[in-house]
């Protein structure tokens, strides 16, 4: 039944994804291998190899595993060893690709965390700046109220601005304390 269903699925080859066609060819190669029909195994391995999918992730590994089993059953030790080396190389390639993907994912996560930390830092600085502006406005208002009678509002407002904008070491006494 498996052969019948696989052949039927392949009759719709143009309508199904290439990856599915690859898996059907590989399955047929394995099924023929179980029946010791080595010529059909070779036919379906060649069909697998002709697909673009055969070069994606597990494609080379799948084909090497089938080739290894084929040559082992035939008793061809050197070809089996060669297929085994292909399996090892394919597994290493898959592991390298998975490691590279993991490294890229970690790098992306790290960069995102850095950006989030920078955004939090900038938001904190914005809050501090907003508080300083409010304090400046309040101080200028207080200085204006205190000096309203004397008419020198501008001088105390300038002193308040200088006090808030200056560094701690450059600050003199608070403008309200200058009286």
What is this entry, summarized?
The chain is 77% helix and 0% strand. The protein is mainly alpha-helical and 179 residues long.
Which stretches of 5+ consecutive residues score pLDDT under 50? 167-171
Mean pLDDT: 82
List SSEs in N-to-C order: HHHHHH
* Amino- and carboxy-terminal Cα gap: 104 Å
Quaternary arrangement of the chains shown? single chain
Radius of gyration: 38 Å
Helix-strand makeup class: mainly alpha
Major sheet size, sense and barrel closure: none
Q: State the total count of DSSP E strands.
A: 0
Provide the β-strand percentage band. Answer: under 5%
**What is the 3D form?**
rod-shaped
Instruction: Tell me roughly what share of residues is in helical segments.
Output: over 70%
Q: How many DSSP helices?
A: 6
Give the topology, please:
Blueprint: H1 2-10, H2 18-34, H3 38-50, H4 59-74, H5 77-146, H6 153-165
Describe this protein's structure.
By secondary structure, the chain is an all-alpha fold. Helix content is 77%, strand content 0%. It has helices at residues 2-10, 18-34, 38-50, 59-74, 77-146, 153-165. Helix 2 (18-34) packs antiparallel against helix 3, helix 4 runs antiparallel to helix 5 (77-146) and helix 5 runs antiparallel to helix 6 (153-165). The longest helix is centred in the middle third of the chain and has 70 residues, at 77-146. The protein is rod-shaped. 16% of the residues are buried.
